[in-house]
Amino acid sequence: MIFRENGRKPVFIIALFLSFVLSLLILQRKHDLSLPTDADHTKHAAKKPATAAKEVASLDSEQIKLPVASIKALQNETLGFEKVYVINLPKRTDKLDAIRLSASVTGFNFDVIQAQNGADMSPKALPGPFDDGPQRDAIVGIVNNRLSSALIFEDDADWDVSFRMQLLRFATGSQWLLDTPPGSTPHSPYGDDWDLLWLGHCALAPIETDSRRVVLENDPSTTPFKYRFNMGAIPDMTIYDNTTRVVYASDGGTCLYAYALSYRGAQKILFHLSMSYYHQPVDFGIHDMCHDHSRNFRCIGVFPQMVDSHRGAGSSSKDSDISKGQEQDRKKGFSYNIVRSTRLNVGHLISGEMDKIESQWPGEVPEMEGGVKISFREKLEG
């Protein structure tokens, strides 16, 4: 810019100075927006405990066959879903505090759906056909708010410290099972056209007529055979070794420790289980939705499960607000089917002490090299 009048020279100098300052600010802003490296995260793990759990495993770029947009979506604060819900009885602040801590070190946020104890309700107000209180509220919330998807946890849920890495591998499998065309980017990082993703359960059967499997071998977060505890039909795992997890099309399961619904999936559940005559608890209803293939309800599952229930230290009477078993006093808590429990390691994760992460079964899971190997198989072996 040229100023022709002598009186404008100071203005030119000021403009030049402001331009120089603006350039410096832009350069600084670009530096601030640069993506942190793994080394940066590790260096500051103690200062940022919410991201500490992400450092347990590094990205297996040669095995994670996902579009860049899907990987970025899976790294958001709702684990690749539009929203995360946790179901909690208001009087159980202990359970809510515990899962808040677990979520904080894993790096995700959630909304609370308040449950109500049936003992505090009038018999006339007790749940009827498909009216399981908080589970129904979560499903209705997805439809009312037109959420593309939501992940629903029970408040005693626990997961491995490598949960985010597990989700990347699971998404690789679910996209393949949902026939995502190579090179395309689905709307959901888990693939399109799914109705339910069953991540936490106590048994999950495969569809007998669908033998496709996404096989995750050499996975150190897989529960050893002798410590697996399930209460129903599961895939045949005898054809795999002790460190293999599989992703597959599910025929229905038991327990709802963690499951995700798409908007369409929530619509289908409300239609079939609320508008029709159905006198079963919601977990039975969701099992039946997966099992009755005439309902065109697509369920994708994983085994061994990635989420299960935790039993805390102290009196066993705190475990359940529904059933009462023989009371015991535990010196240390435990979680079913989880190798490196987030709840049991939450103190180390808060402090950034990644070298102190403990397995529930020390020495039972061998040290593995080369990362998890992912293979896509059209039929079962053997």
Short description:
This protein has nine helices and 15 strands. It has 382 residues and is of the alpha+beta class.
Outline the secondary-structure elements:
Layout: H1 9-33, H2 38-43, H3 68-74, E1 83-88, H4 93-106, E2 111-114, H5 134-144, E3 149-154, E4 157-159, H6 163-177, E5 196-200, E6 203-206, E7 213-217, E8 245-254, E9 258-262, H7 263-274, H8 282-291, E10 299-303, E11 307-311, E12 314-315, E13 329-330, E14 334-335, H9 346-351, E15 373-377
Parallel strand pairs: 1-2, 1-3, 5-10
Antiparallel strand pairs: 3-9, 4-11, 5-9, 6-8, 7-8, 7-15, 8-10, 11-14, 12-13
Helix pairs in contact: 5-7
Shape: globular
Total number of helices: 9
Tell me the radius of gyration: 24 Å
Cα end-to-end separation = 78 Å
Number of strands: 15
Low-confidence stretches: 1-18, 20-58
Largest sheet: 10 strands, mixed
The percent of residues in helical segments reads 25-40%
Strand content: 15-25%
- Overall structural class, as computed from helix and strand content, comes to alpha+beta
Mean pLDDT: 81
Order of helices and strands: HHHEHEHEEHEEEEEHHEEEEEHE
